[in-house]
Specification:
The chain is of the alpha/beta class and about 220 residues long. It has a single domain, classed as Rossmann fold (3-Layer(aba) Sandwich), CATH 3.40.50. It is about 35% helix and about 30% strand. Strands 1, 2, 3, 4, 5, 6, 7, 8, 9 and 10 form a ten-stranded mixed sheet that branches. β8 and β9 form a beta hairpin. The protein is globular and about 45 Å long. About 45% of the residues are buried.
Length: about 220
Amino acid sequence: MIALLGDDRGHPSHQELNALRPQLAELGAETEWVPTDSGFDIAAYDGVWLVPGSPYADDAAVIAALEVVRERGIPFLGVCGGMQYAVLEWTRNVVGSTATHAESDGEGDDNAVAALACSLYGEKRLVTPVPGTRFADWQPEPFVGMHFCNYAPTAEAVVALEKAGVVVGATANDAGAEVLEFPDHSFYVTSMFQPHIGALAGAPVHPLVRAFVSAVGARG
C-alpha cells in the first residue's frame, strides 16, 4: 500500500495522479490519498509518494513524516513540492543547517528552497539523466518532462546535500537539479518533473514510477 501523501485539490496534476492509480494497481500497488492534516501514521504504509501541491495543509506533519521515512527506510518518491520538502528535512536533520522555504517562510538568507528565476509552472523542459546514476539506469535517454513548479532547491542547498552524499540524477535548463537521489536508503528519490503527467492520455507508466513501485514491492 502506497500513501499518496498530500492534499487532493483537484489540480490538473492531481487529476493525472488519480488517472495513474489504476495503472499502479495493475503493477500490484494499491494507493491511498493521505491528507497531510489527517493525523496519519506514515509508518503503516509500504511506500510513500509525497505529491505536488505545496504548501501543504500541515507542513509540520509532512516534515515529521519525512523523518520517519528516512529513518525507517520506507521507499519514498517526492515530486515537485515533495522534492522541496525532502530537501528541507534532509538539510535540517542530516546536514544540520537551518533550512526555510521562501513560499511559506518568506525570502531569507536561510532559504533552502527559493523561487525559480524562470517559473516552470505548466512548462516542459528536456530532462537529461546524469550517466552513472541510478536514475540513468532506469531512464537512460533524455526526455521531455512536464513541470508545475515556481520554487526549487537553491544551488547552495544542492551543493550542501551533495557533500552529504546526495546525488544529482538529472538536470534541465532553468531547473538545475531535476532529480536527487538520497543515500543510505533503499529508495529515496525526488524529481522536479512530474512523472505521472500523461496518465489521462494513456501514457505508459514512467520508469521512475516503475522503479519506485518495484522498491515498494521488494520491501513489502
